[in-house]
Every structure is written in C-alpha cells, then in structure tokens.
C-alpha cells in the first residue's frame, strides 16, 4: 500500500534542508549568523527568509559598507573613514583638523 506519510517526511526533510540553507545564506549576507539563518529557514521556511531579509544588517556589516555614519571623511593619518563631525579619529586616535 502506498504510504503517504513516509513520502511526506522525506520531502519535508529535503525541503527543510533547502529552506535552511537559503535562510542561512540570507542571514550571512546581512552579516548575521549562518547557523541561526539555517535554523529559522528550516523551521519557518519562507517566513524565516523574510525575517532574515527584513532584519537590519548588523552594525559590523554597515560599518564595513560605510553607510551607518552618514557623511564621512577620510582620516588623513590612517586613511580610515570617520564621521564628518569627528574631531578624533576612532581608528588611530589622532586629532583630525578641519579639512
Ligand atoms: Zn585615523
């Protein structure tokens, strides 16, 4: 006799694996944990992806992309980007003259 539940479980397992992997990639692209993304994707499917996609990128990622600080200028000493209003470079600690 055709066992509906066996087939269903196999498909579900593969689907969870795929959902988990995609969720993990979405989370990783936002600078968040791949593992948590996997977990959410596997448990919630597309809803987990949506949570990952809507999630604010981590502060670390934003800083790397240089979009968190708004207007920025380049430190003349260490060439790192610092806030426009910064007086002291947060990277090298030197005082920055108005440019
Ligand atoms: Zn500096």
Summarize the structure.
By secondary structure, the protein is mainly alpha-helical. The chain has helices at 4-29, 34-44, 46-54, 59-65; strands spanning 72-74, 81-83.
Shape: rod-shaped
**Helix/strand class:** mainly alpha
Unreliable parts:
none
Helix content: 40-55%
**Bound small molecules, deduplicated:** zinc ion
Radius of gyration: 22 Å
How much of the residues is beta strand, in percent? 5-15%
Q: What strand line-up does the widest sheet have?
A: 1-2
Helices, by number, come to 4
Give the tally of β-strands. 2
Return the domain count.
2
Largest sheet: 2 strands, antiparallel
Q: Kindly, what is the distance between the CA atoms of the first and last residues, rounded to a whole number of angstroms?
A: 80 Å
Order of helices and strands: HHHHEE
Subunit organisation of the chains: single chain
Instruction: Give the overall average pLDDT.
Output: 83
List the helices and strands and how they pair.
Layout: H1 4-29, H2 34-44, H3 46-54, H4 59-65, E1 72-74, E2 81-83
Antiparallel strand pairs: 1-2
Helix pairs in contact: 1-2, 1-3, 2-3
Bound molecules: zinc ion (ZN).
The site of zinc ion (ZN) has 8 residues, from loops.
Word description of this protein:
There is one protein chain. This protein is mostly helical and 99 residues long. It has two domains: 1-56; 58-99. The protein is 54% helix and 6% strand. It has four helices and two strands, in the order ααααββ. It has helices at 4-29, 34-44, 46-54, 59-65, and strands at 72-74, 81-83. A two-stranded antiparallel ribbon has the order 1-2. The longest helix has 26 residues, at 4-29. The mean pLDDT is 83. The structure holds zinc ion. Zinc ion is lined by residues 75, 77-78, 80, 89, 91-92, 94.
């Amino acid at each position: 006799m055709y066992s509906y539940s066996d087939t269903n479980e196999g498909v579900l397992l593969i689907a969870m694996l795929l959902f988990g992997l995609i969720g993990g990639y979405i989370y990783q692209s936002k600078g968040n944990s791949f593992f948590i993304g996997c977990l959410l994707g596997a448990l919630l499917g597309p809803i987990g992806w949506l949570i990952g996609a809507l999630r604010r990128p981590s502060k670390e990622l934003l800083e790397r992309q240089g979009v968190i600080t708004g207007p920025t200028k380049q430190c003349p000493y260490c060439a790192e980007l610092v806030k426009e209003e910064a007086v002291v470079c947060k990277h090298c600690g030197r005082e920055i003259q108005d440019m």
